[in-house]
Amino acid sequence: MTSINVYIADDHPVVRKGMVRLLKTFERVGQVKEAADGKELLALLTNDRPHIIILDIEMPVMGGVDTVKAVLQRFPNVKILILTMHSEEVLVRRLLDMGVNGFLTKSSGPEEIEKAIYAIMDNDFYKNAITENAQGIAGAEENEGRRKLTIREIEILLLICKEMTSREISERLHISEKTFFNHRTNIMEKTGSKSNIGLLKYALRKGIIST
Amino acid sequence: MTSINVYIADDHPVVRKGMVRLLKTFERVGQVKEAADGKELLALLTNDRPHIIILDIEMPVMGGVDTVKAVLQRFPNVKILILTMHSEEVLVRRLLDMGVNGFLTKSSGPEEIEKAIYAIMDNDFYKNAITENAQGIAGAEENEGRRKLTIREIEILLLICKEMTSREISERLHISEKTFFNHRTNIMEKTGSKSNIGLLKYALRKGIIST
DNA sequence: TGCCGACATAGGAGTTACTCCTATACGGAT
DNA sequence: ATCCGTATAGGAGTAACTCCTATGTCGGCA
Lengths: 211, 211
Description:
Chain A has 211 residues and is an alpha/beta fold. Helices cover 55% and strands 13% of the residues of chain A.
């Protein structure tokens, strides 16, 4: 078995650098490259491509979700390991549907990270509490009669819950405010909310965010 | 010792009727009267007055806070026992400052209710987990440098967290929308929030509401 | 007794947030 | 070939909100 090339994308230098240093200590890991956001990561991919990409799901410039989409569209065989703060259940579910290969929290220890990388290389998937949990709620959500939120909608819901204004969110996502409002209206319809207050409560109930 | 006269104000007929029936079984309890809201309660008080008033803090027509204020202003010697759903810490603190004599949740058992009534008659105060808890947070809140929320502000914050619109809230409180916005702005300033999302998060952190 | 500060109230004028309806484009399922 | 779901966005109107100013009340305090 040849060595595993790993790229990491995370906007927090501390996390990123620490991860790079850690990865290099792993026996089976070969080349390691880093990027501060999705755009940088995609730039790296023009020349060569890694076996595994470790991706922070909450990056400012190009969000994790967009990055997953872009990467998998161009290189369907690249494995993706998601770094997530809180285990946002619905979001995890969507990312799994997109073909992501595993999840880690930023508080994971070195052993777990190494285990995840090897599991993904050998079995194509790293199974842990986060992914287990997501299986459970998939069904539950269906039962409520309401349609599922799309990835874009979850992305928007997360930003709303961060106390960002409509302007800020639309600028961040490079869409018009109109489009933002359309999404927001759709989310409210799907979640049975009347306002941002209702949206935040929904996100809390569903574990999309934690208090 | 003569028997204790108790009035109860609660907008939920089930709770109210149940409470009336229960109270009548207590040995030391004499006359029992009921009201569906603060206005009705005050009307009862024109003729005679009870030893203890049991008050639901979340009533639609005339809120519990207003009722407490009105009752104590006219009859400082009447004891007040608050019925509360969630133990909203900051609110409890304020009500204690106003001179309320004890708290019960609606899930309290008959024995606890009887105990509370006797404790208030005999010692002027019913001490339990809810009141204990409020003592603790009083200090914590002071430390943050920000001024305390007033009762009115907490009342408004609660309604905001219920996903009510500005119009609905101002109508409910019989104030102009302008006044509502002034309060809201002040609350945001005091709590360091930028929007309703921030207010809800604050309320959750402080235990003013529960998820 | 008289004053001051905190609180609750509210108007005017302006800005931002948002709804409702309509419409286009694209990619995947049937 | 068609259709549905998704993402995009404009026009026109309404609701929500800010900022500044101002008033009455009440309780404490000099």
